[in-house]
Amino acid sequence: MNHAIDRFGDMADTWVAVTRLMADAQCVLTMRLLGLSGVWSLPEGESQTMVGEKVPVFTEAALSGTFAMMSGRSPHKVFRETLKPISSKASANRERLEDRGPLVFGRRVTRA
C-alpha cells in the first residue's frame, strides 16, 4: 500500500511539472508574439535568442533523460529528468520577459 502511495505522489509531481512547463511556455510564447507585434517590450535580438536556445536546451534534456534511463530510474523519473532543462529555461524566459513589461504608445511601462 505504501509503495502505491509513493508511486502516485511521484506521478502527481511529474504532472505538476508538466503543467508548470505548459504554463511557462504559453506565457513566453504570448509575450514573444506580443513583442514581435510591438505590444510587449522585448530585448534586442530576442528573435535570434528564441531560435538559438532550442538546440542546446533540447540536447541537454536528451542527455539528462538518457543518463537517467541508463542508471535504471523508473519511466516517470526519466521523464522528469528530461523535462528539467526545458522547464528551467522556460521559467527563466518567462521571468525575464515578464520583467520587460508591456509597451504603451511605444514606451515601456515602468512598475512603481
Descriptive notes:
The chain has 112 residues and is mainly alpha-helical. Helices cover 76% and strands 4% of the residues. The protein has four helices and two strands. The chain has helices at residues 2-36, 46-52, 54-70, 75-100; strands at 103-104, 107-108. Strands 1-2 form a two-stranded antiparallel ribbon. A hairpin with a 2-residue loop joins strand 1 and strand 2. Helix 1 packs parallel to helix 4 and helix 3 (54-70) packs antiparallel against helix 4. The longest helix is centred in the first third of the chain and has 35 residues, at 2-36. The radius of gyration is 18 Å and the shape is elongated. The N and C termini lie far apart (53 Å). The model has no long low-confidence stretch (mean pLDDT 90).
Quick gist of this model?
With 112 residues, this protein is mostly helical. It is built from 4 helices and 2 strands.
- Our Rg estimate from Cα atoms comes to 18 Å
Count, helices: 4
Low-pLDDT sequence parts:
none
Number of strands: 2
DSSP strand content = under 5%
Helix fraction bin: over 70%
The major β-sheet equals:
2 strands, antiparallel
Order of helices and strands: HHHHEE
Using the alpha-carbon principal axes, give the shape.
elongated
Distance between the termini: 53 Å
- Supply the helix-strand structural class: mainly alpha
Mean pLDDT over all positions = 90
